[in-house]
Amino acid sequence: NSIRDTIEAASDIGTEAVTLYAFSTENWNRPKLEVDALMNLLMTTLKKELPVFQKKNVQVRAIGNLDSLPNKARRVLESVIDQTKTNSKVILTFALSYGSREEIVNAVKGISKKIVNNELSIKEIDENIINNHLYTFSLPEVDLVIRTSGEQRISNFLLWQIAYAEFYFTEILWPDFRRDDFLKAVIEYQSRERRFGKTSEQIKK
User: Is this model's pTM higher than 0.90 or not?
Assistant: First the structure.
């Protein structure tokens, strides 16, 4: 219900992309029974919400160490991704078996390999090069991070990508998060002055 309400609201107001932190690399340390339940919930949700994704023109993607997912869950995920790949109104990305530190380590390895193979020089490394080696290379910049459940930590999520994002904290638990809660966060975001290091006077000009 949380996913459906959020995506429908995002689609209705023209949000370009939404990324949901569905399962972290640390979550594998939870009891096996709970991990299995979460994987089953993932599969059930993807199957159940596919008609909504199609109706709302939502393109489903996934980032993270997807090879570590159970085969059955990965097949369901790949099927939904394939069936929605031509949708173009909203990009819905599930972060699954995702950890930002692992993502950055993998980016460093990828860049290092290109340097060793003389495909890239150290002088060429800049923010764009790093961006292009992250899981999110084809996604837009992150504008807003919504943190539910009263937590006030990043939890190893998009550490590089949220450098200039606005944060919105709510006490509402994610399972109870609904359309109005999403819209409230967006309205709050719209009231912020995003300066990116500049002064208010410079922004006004």
Answer: yes
